[in-house]
Amino acid sequence: MSVSQTNTAQPAISVQNIIKRYGDFEAVKGVTFDVADGEIFGLLGPNGAGKSTLIRMMTTLIPVTSGKAIIAGYDVSRAPDAVRRMIGVIPQALTSDIDLTVEENLSIYAKLYDVPKATREQNINELLEAVDLTKWRNAQTKTLSGGMRRRLEIARGLVHNPRIFFLDEPTTGLDPVSRVAVWEMLNNLKNKHHLTMLITTHYMDEADRLCDRIAIVDHGKLVALDTPMALKANVPGTNVVEAQFTNESTDWLERLRQLAGVMSVESQSAGMYRILTSSGSLTTMQLVEMTASRGETIKSLSVQNTTLDDVFVHYTGRALRDEQVKAAGFIMPPRPGMQP
Ligand SMILES: Nc1ncnc2c1ncn2[C@@H]1O[C@H](COP(=O)(O)OP(=O)(O)OP(=O)(O)O)[C@@H](O)[C@H]1O
User: Name one GO molecular function term (predicted).
Assistant: First the structure.
């Protein structure tokens, strides 16, 4: 079926049993999901899970091996130009021209996308305001901080008024304050421009705060898809107890596993144990009793609700902090005048 009409009742993005093969290697193995109009949809997964490959297919950068991706009503394989007019794309790498000013970067893109002259200036002014760069419009891009440059790239991706915005790790390499500023900005932009957003991220707190629904991808397959709250509620064990003992006994792992409600126990560094349990209070009570009856002491103890990190571990078998090693390796390019 060739879909050529834009229809607001249909999903903004519809991916149907999509497959991508690189030679003999299947990087995406039949993934299906819809993204509703106006939704912020997160794609999470370990390194190499297939997130970028999925985004590249949805944004027409690489051909689909089989299956379909329908973006704003257009099939990426049959109507790639129409898809490109409907989408804005922020890739992982920063691509604005550092020798141009902020405004020149936006203006060149607007011309590339044939934004009519009459609306070009107004669009640029509004976007500069939205990303809080109005007073930097004449600054050379190379003088901007990492966070400001990322905001410029986001404004540039919206200069032709796309309906659907794809962001591949929009806050990687930013400090926590800049990350929160980008989240707020994306939320404001979404509401003001009625955008649909698809975001990949390595940061669980980002996905939790920003996304209406989250898809977890692993080894090229979709392994979970729901709202952050439902994902957390559906993971066995609703609490995480972290405990550290003064005595480095080798049988803690086994003894902790036998406490009431315990689903799994993970031994961490510095004698810390992370316990996933269906009843934080019951497990904690028994843990305290058991420790006291053996004449041992607890060095530290905390009880937390299940986080998206726990969801991630549950579905992928890997902790996100392993993934963050790679993410932390990305460093924003230095700007002139910055201290090393
Ligand atoms: N052009 C290519 N040729 C061959 N294999 C590729 C190519 N691009 C990606 N792959 C492989 O496909 C798999 C999925 O890669 P992809 O970049 O989509 O993962 P990702 O989830 O985006 O990972 P990351 O978080 O590291 O960006 C990986 O095993 C990768 O090595």
Answer: ATP binding
